[in-house]
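Quick question, first post here. What does this chain look like in 3D?
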Amino acid sequence: MNAREQRLAIALVAILLLGGGWIAFTKMVKWKKDLEEREHQLSLRRIEAEELIKTKDFWTARSQWLESKQPIWTSQRAADDELNKLITETSKKEGVTVLASLQQEPVQQDGLWASGISLEVKGPYEKTLQWLHRLQTPDGHPTYDSFVSIQGLALKPDVEDPTKIHIQDLHIQKWYRESNPTASPAPPAGKP
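> Answer (accepted):
Ran it through. Tokens below.
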């Protein structure tokens, strides 16, 4: 091999070494970034776990309160009857007139069941708003253990009597917990 060929061979080896070094360098940089990202994610998860452990007693107490206060879903009929009774009794007590009602299909979500009803009501402004509030807090009880939620409503003044309001598309749900949340939920009564 003459001197020219030796220089070409050395240049080729140098280019191959530099190219290989560059590829190895970029892979190492990417690997380092991936490791740093994983370390950051692990650090965040550790901090989150520590915070959850600190608040364990708080969440355990809330869970125990829910288990002792929230009613158990037994059947769609029983839940619908209870919700209808609540609506009827509280609306009469507050002087609110129920113009129309339509029972809704039950909702199942994360170990909970909800009985629902859609209403159209009319009544004096203050009494009707007080009724909506008391639906969610029976007898004004401060523990909020009625488990009733209002999913939506359309409120407008009554055209016949301006001292009254007319509420349409009032969707009310009462929430129940499953009797055995680990078992697969039974279909509501009357369903195949």
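The radius of gyration is 33 Å.
The helical segments are 3-54, 56-69, 76-94, 125-136.
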